[in-house]
Write a structure and sequence with these properties.
Blueprint lengths: L1 H17 L14 H23 L8 H27 L16 H19 L2 H8 L13 H13 L2 H4 L12 H20 L7 H21 L14 H17 L12 H27 L21 E2 L5 E2 L28
Antiparallel strand pairs: 1-2
Helix pairs in contact: 2-5, 2-8, 3-4, 3-9, 4-8, 9-10, 10-11
């Protein structure tokens, strides 16, 4: 019985591999799903097991400069991907209705292949979001407080092969932000996208990828400004609209593929992806709607005032109390009872979920 199931599974696997686009075989991670799957399994193990254990007795790393660089680099990368999607078909030859995949070696067809792969690869880069939330909390008070060389090597390896966004969550010990939605989205989705890009790079199925990158340009701009510190918080008044933008994304994606069901005929080569995209759009709309409800209706993710006194003789500044008056109460070690500013903006970044 089990052997029969295994044989059938292998048969389906080999059938799918035979259908992959040979134009992508030479691209990194595209020769086989094995390497890609290994990276995602390593990511899940690190985020759920190894990362929390590694950071259990360590202070969070402060990666302010790294996060600013990473976030704005992702802004540039996603903007470039959007441009390439537009030039590869969506702003040139596509009808925005039933657009088939161009499997030829034409310049336009090969350009779509390149941007489809780049979109997929960007999803592996984004894995670093989680790991950083667990390490950015090891505070480098002095050059002597930097982690050991082998720890830095591990960080570099994860930065290269996992996803900077998720890695940052782990290293900054932002365990509360590593939710089911976060881990599922950054592990299972790249796995399915690998098959999507391998079997159908382009066509109607690539619309959601382009829209996703547009949203990420906005989101990473927010994260970059947030990581830059308190002085930039005045530019983040639009934070509350971020989840709404993501919800609009899912509605647009679902509506776009829904037209397929009302067409008399459509030449798109892999109809299965149409159904999957519609289901994913609906599924994530429900998940993100729940996040919106928890964050903004029930207020579970609203910033909390920290009333703990400052440490090491440093004043934390003035705090607002319930009656609206400001108090500056110094104590014996010269500290203030106010709330300290979060210099790396982590109190703000990560309040939204990435899509």
């Amino acid at each position: 019985m089990l052997q029969d199931i295994g044989d059938r599974a292998m048969g389906v696997y080999e059938y799918l591999l035979k259908g992959t686009d040979p134009r992508l075989w030479s691209y990194p991670l595209m020769g086989s799903p094995v390497n890609m799957s290994a990276i995602l399994l390593t990511y899940i193990f690190f985020v759920l097991v190894a990362g929390p254990r590694f950071m259990a007795n360590r202070k969070p790393f402060q990666l302010k400069e790294a996060m600013i660089t990473y976030n704005f680099s992702m802004v540039a990368l996603n903007a470039f991907i959007v441009y390439e999607f537009l030039m590869s078909g969506w702003a040139t030859t596509y009808t925005w209705r039933c657009d088939a995949v161009d499997y030829s070696d034409s310049p336009q067809g090969l350009r779509m292949v390149r941007v489809a792969w780049l979109f997929l690869f960007s999803k592996f880069i984004e894995l670093l979001d989680t790991v950083t939330l667990q390490i950015i909390s090891y505070r480098f008070a002095s050059p002597q407080s930097f982690p050991p060389v082998h720890v830095m090597v591990i960080m570099v390896v994860f930065d290269m092969f996992l996803s900077l966004g998720q890695v940052f969550f782990v290293l900054r010990k932002k365990h509360g932000q590593i939710t089911f939605l976060h881990v599922f989205h950054h592990s299972f989705m790249p796995w399915t996208w690998w098959w999507g890009v391998s079997l159908a790079p382009g066509g109607i199925g690539s619309f959601h990828a382009m829209v996703n990158c547009i949203v990420h340009v906005i989101m990473y701009s927010y994260y970059g400004l947030s990581a830059a510190g308190p002085r930039f918080q005045k530019f983040l008044w639009w934070k509350k609209y971020m989840t709404a933008i993501q919800l609009v994304q899912f509605v647009m994606v679902s509506l776009h593929v829904t037209q397929y069901y009302f067409m008399d005929s459509c030449d798109y080569q892999v109809p299965l992806f149409i159904h999957l995209i519609w289901m994913y759009g609906t599924f994530f709309f429900v998940l993100f709607s729940n996040f919106w409800y928890q964050a903004y209706v029930k207020g579970k993710r609203l910033p909390k005032q920290d009333s703990k006194p400052g440490l090491n003789g440093k004043a934390n500044g003035t705090t607002m109390v319930a009656n609206g008056k400001h108090h500056k109460k110094g104590n014996s070690n010269g500290t203030s009872n106010g709330s300290s500013h979060n210099e790396n903006g982590s109190a703000y970044a990560g309040k939204m979920k990435k899509s």
